Structures are given as C-alpha cells and as structure tokens.
Amino acid sequence: MKENIYVEVINKIIESIDEGIHFIDKNGKTIVYNNSMAKLEGMNKEDIVNKSFFDVVKNMKVNNSTLLEVLDSKCIIKDNVQKYLNKDGKEITTINTTMPIIVGNKLVGALEISKDMTQIQSLSEQILKLKEIKISKSHIPEKIGYNFDDIIGVSDTIKKSLKISQKAAKSDAAVLVYGETGTGKELISQSIHYGSSRKKQPFIAQNCAALPESLLEGILFGTTKGGFTGAIDRPGLFEQANKGTLLLDEINSMPLQLQAKLLRVLQEGYVRRVGGTKDIPVDVRIIATTNENPNKILEEGKLRKDLYYRLNVIYIQIPPLRERGDDIILLANKFIDKYNQKLDKNIKRISEDAKQYLKQHYWQGNVRELENTIYSSMSMMDDENILNKDMININQYDSGKNGDQYFIDIKSRPLDWIVADIEEKYINEALERSGDNVTKAAAILGICRQNLQYKIKKYNIRRN
User: Fold this and answer.
1) Average pLDDT over residues 278-307
2) Relative to the CA of 11, which of 82, 139, 234, 350 has its CA 20 to 30 Å away?
3) Within a domain: residue 402?
C-alpha cells in the first residue's frame, strides 16, 4: 500500500514540474516521458511511452543522442546546451543533464532532465546583437555614458571614492567596486572608462546574475559553429570590448567554474570561444562590482581568492547614501529638476521640514530609492511648487535604524508569507492614495506598471 502511494506521489511530481523528464530502459524503451517534455518537443506522449527510442528517432546515431550516449558510456553529461527544431518546426534551446541509472551495480536505463531556455537564449542573442549595433554605430563616441561631472556630492565619504576613481581612470589596472544596491556602481564604472585613454573604445556591461552559467559563458567568450547543437560563430563580449572596458556587474553571482575560466582569460590575455580551439588575443580592461562586502563573499566561498586578487588591483568603496549627509538634499534637488521636465511640474524648492525628513531616513535602497521617492512624490502633486514633508512618499519598512518602522507579528509564519502580506498591504495603500490609478500607484511604489498589474493579479486584489 505504501509503495503504491509512493509511486503515485512521484508520478504527480513528475507531471507537475516545468522541467522535461525522459527515461529509457537499458534496451532503449521509453518508460517515463512527462507532459513538459512532450510540450517541449512537440510530441504526443502516446507516440513515445512504451515505444523503442530507436523507432521514434529512426536512423539516429549514438553520438547524436545524449540518452543513447549515456546508455553506452554510463557517464553523466551535465549542463549540456542543445538547440534543435521540435516536431512542430519551432527552434528550441534546452540545458540538459543526462545520467545513467544504476541499481545494484547493474545499468537499468538512462534519465534526461531538460530545462527550456528558448526564451532566455533568444533574449541573450538580442542583447548581443544590440550591443554589437551600439558598438558599431558609436565606436568613437563623444559621450554615451556618465562621467565624473555627473556625480553629485560634497561629503567627505563620496569625495574619497571619487579621488580614487579619478586616479583609476589614469590607469589600465583592474578595478573592484563595492557598494550597496543603488549607490551608483555603474555610474562610477562608466566615469572611470570615459575618463581614461580607452574612452573612444567600447564600454560594455554585463550582469553576472542575469543568466545561467551555460549562456553566460557563451555571451562572455563567444561561440563556435558546431561547438554544440545549434551553435553559430559569434564573438563574445570580450572580443566586442577589445581595446575598451568590460564591466562585470555582481561578480559575486558568477558560478565558480566560470570564475576559473575568467581568471584564465585575465592571466593569459586571450579567449577561446565555447566549442572552439583557436586562441583569440584580447586587450580588455575589467571593472568588477559587488553589492556584498568582499570579505564576506570570500569567507562564504562565493568568489575565488585568486580571482579576487586579480580583480582587486584598485579597490573603490562607494558609501551608502545615509553616510553622505547633505548630499541627500543635493541629489533630491537634482531629481526634482529631472522630473519637473518629465512630469511637466514646477517644484522650486524643498521645505525645511521635508529636508530634515529626507536626511533622517535610512535609505536602504540608497540613491535609487531617493530618486524613486522624489518621482513618486512629484507624481502625486498637483499645482504645488514646494515639496513639503507631508507630500513625500517613502515606502515604510523596518530599516533597523532611524527610519520609520513597520512592525509585524511573526507568529511562526514562513518568511515568504510575511513578505507577501507586507507587499499586498503597500499595494493596497498605493491604490488607495492614487484613486485606483494603476500608473500613479506604480509610481508611488517605484515599480513599472506591468509589474504592479502582475502583483495585483497575484494577490487577487479587487477594489471597488
């Protein structure tokens, strides 16, 4: 009885997950083929299950099928990128892990788990194309990004960071930039590039947390036709950034295996495309950023020590906004000027009580949070020309410092439930303040309209 329950639970799990599952026995007969795999390959389960895999894919050689290859070699094939046309003629990109199933030292079959990466692959290719177009159209730009004149601040802490950054611009050494989310790490990075001798060459930024390892490797180092199923000849970001600067944002999110490959490129000065055999020399300056303290990520093993020492030739720490004193008001005035034009407003100044209110807030989201606060506050103003304290819309949360606090009764509830309750509460408050205008409510919350619509649907928020 227990065994029947166990089998039923496993079947339910297999049919409910997004990953495709395909299991064949040692004779090549398909035993398990879930709905996700059928949808991925455009096949009917009835045409696959309990049929010989050799009959389904007639004339297929062993080295063209990872399932058959694993049956033959009894070795695991991990994170294998495949691109192919399914039965309906749609181009599909998957990342597969295929493994032999051995029971009691005997091979009983092979299991393949496939994750559909078609959309992510398409987006990554569009990113590469857009970056190629941007580079080709503005190879010798007058200015396409930020420089040091765009950085506002008179506090000692930001002046110290700027002084180091300006010296870094005169060098070709690698730079490691640490700062909390929203402090302006990319702004500093662009300023270093456009203040350097490389300013007429490409500046390319890539977020290391945005893509899975298999796709990120191809984006950074390029791909070679035939390197894997569906691969084409395409230069990676290192080649595109040749003679210029490559910004690796959130380097602490890069998988360790890929960090080792990055280290080799930095040490040897050449790249080898995925699936290729040719070494391509590159001259690229690296600026890496992290939103976690370098000592912490080293202790936690998120960053290889040898890569850290290679990147940390020049170290720049950007102070959080709460440590920048009067810079808060300078930045607030800058954002008021910006959104006066964008929103067709005429805000001339900030009242004294509003200044004190802004300076006392903890600013966990730093400069980005301040900008969103000014934007959302101004969006709700009518004909006023002074920004008063009661007009400032700051999303309240437990900052742990001097900021306003929102207290909750945990009651042994899971964290995601608590977060969801808080999020739903503020969405309702924003809708209330905006008169149920989704666009204005999104501005108050500092998110895009589409994101707010998704969350309204997620929490089934209904208002009269």
Assistant:
1) 93
2) 82
3) no
